[in-house]
Amino acid sequence: MDQPHLTAALSAGFEQLPQQLQAAARWVLDHPADVALLTTREQAKRASLSPATLTRLAQRFGLSGYDELRAIHAAALRQRPEGFAGRAGELMQRHGDEGAGAIAQDMFAALAEHLRALREPDTQAQLERAAILLAEAQTVFCFGLRSAFPAAYMLDYIRDLIGAGSVLADGAGGRGIDALRRIGPDDAFFAVSVSPYTRLTLQAAELAKAKGAKLIALTDSPLSPLAALADATVLVRTETPSFFHTMTPAFAAVECLAALMTARKGAAALAAIARHEAELHDTGTFHQPRPAKRGRK
């Protein structure tokens, strides 16, 4: 049995299942990637079920056990097309078969699950460790290319807002890595990259480490080449039903890092924010509604 046939069988037989097995079937149908990648015990914990319930579900549909069900999902995950073009073709095929609504629902379900994963204790510990290094650094050099650039830019923007030393090594005109000539042991290098990893980001990270800076990596796997170099790593998930990886969890992680970092900076950050707001007001940066005119008596 392959995954499409198993999915069809679970959907067709859903109403005839006992309540507990319905909950297990809903988990399998709603979290195919987790079924493939997580242990049975971890899945049972996340689904608020017992491992035995998951086993009974698999056996109900003619499988030897839940390990066989997981193997079916893992095989389907391995068979997904490689590269953007292949996955785009898959997306278009699915659009024709299932319609726009199914894709949209799956997209937002995947994003919700990725954001929920950021609340896991291990990820919380990663965020706290990274925030400490960022708060203690004299200057943070922010580096992210292609789809990773907005996340790096966001951290640089917020550090400037709170009066903390920051350099956005954005590569304009090919000079991005040149900024690292000034990096040293009192500084930190914040690097963002997800698969497929950009070579220049890895080269910049290696250079920053060679100069004694702390490396904070925001990436998508413990096997990422950035994670192998990092003093602190924050992992985010990027897979979606679309052909392109999502950066939404990376943006959320940066916003959390910024909040934790600002809290550690304390009064100095508050004073800098107040000065910044006053300057923005004085220069008319943002639209200010005109005061309402008083009516004549």
Automatic annotation (TrEMBL):
UniProt-listed PROSITE patterns: HTH_RPIR, SIS
Family annotation (InterPro entries): Homeodomain-like_sf, HTH_RpiR, RpiR-like, RpiR-like_SIS, SIS_dom, SIS_dom_sf, WH-like_DNA-bd_sf
Keyword Glycosyltransferase: no
SUPFAM superfamilies, per database record: Homeodomain-like, SIS domain
CDD domains xref list: SIS_RpiR
Occurrences of domain HTH rpiR-type (ranges): 4-80
Phosphoprotein recorded as keyword: no
Family matches, as Pfam families: HTH_6, SIS
The SIS domain, residue ranges: 130-263
Key words, A-Z: DNA-binding, Transcription, Transcription regulation
Gene3D superfamilies: Glucose-6-phosphate isomerase like protein, domain 1, Winged helix-like DNA-binding domain superfamily/Winged helix DNA-binding domain
Top-rank lineage group of the source organism: Bacteria
Protein name: MurR/RpiR family transcriptional regulator
